Amino acid sequence: MRDTATFMILGNICTRNCAFCSVNKGKPLGIDSDEPKRVATAVKDMGLKYVVITSPTRDDLSDGGAAIFAETVREIKKISDNIKVELLVPDFQGNKEAIDKVVLSGCDVLGHNLETAAALYPFVRKGADYDRSLNLLNYIKERDSGILTKSSIMLGLGETVEEIQLLMNDLRTVKCDLFAAGQYLSPSIYTYKVKEYIVPETFDAIEKYAYEIGFLASKCAPYVRSSYLADSFISSKK
Ligand code: SF4
């Protein structure tokens, strides 16, 4: 047993509409201010040692839900400071006050996914902005260089290897520490179709490249997902 789990907070309805994603889209419900305490209670009851907290994008909230993310970290850390908390956050529309809230939360890893190559954003990530996401990761490091930053992508959406290397170089330019890549699988017949099944050798080459350009830890394989073996990134960093 790994004593790890991932929680999705701030509801299950997203205000964006990425073509590859099956999270419900529409008008989200209001904030549940008790949610941080309830997540912490679940963490305690389950005896977890490493927790990933994520959410759908909440563009309807002035801070994108950053305060709830931060409060959830604080409630978990009240149980024990030894519990590691990784946040996987949306882009908060680049709102620096919102980003500050999660930076100052006491989390151990702060992740934001680029998801795919810049060239594919207009087709699969309408509402997102590649540069805004990079700027978010850059700003986190400017505010606190001690926080480990992480970003994950999916392969098989129609990107080229060169575009992925460019993305990885961009991530290193903003001092991103941890990198993960996995095979995209279409979650339903209504979502973006898989363009290519990437062979394991290509994943191996991408992981090798990640270490060559300075990522502290990387996992690249068909079955890898954002929070896959999340706890092992810290323990395996070089
Ligand atoms: S922003 Fe995230 S949760 Fe929302 S549709 Fe895109 S990938 Fe899915």
Descriptive overview:
This protein is an alpha/beta fold and 238 residues long. The chain has one domain: Aldolase class I (TIM Barrel), CATH 3.20.20. Helices cover 36% and strands 17% of the residues. The protein contains 8 helices and 9 strands. The strands form 2 sheets. It has a 7-stranded parallel beta sheet, with helices on both faces. Strand 7, helix 6 and strand 8 form a beta-alpha-beta unit. The relative contact order is 0.14. The model has no long low-confidence stretch (mean pLDDT 95). The site of iron/sulfur cluster (SF4) has 9 residues, from loops.
List the helices and strands and how they pair.
Blueprint: E1 4-8, E2 13-14, E3 24-25, H1 35-46, E4 50-54, H2 66-79, E5 84-88, H3 96-103, E6 109-111, H4 121-124, H5 130-143, E7 148-155, H6 161-173, E8 178-183, H7 200-212, E9 217-220, H8 230-236
Helix pairs in contact: 1-2, 2-3, 3-5
Iron/sulfur cluster binds next to loops.
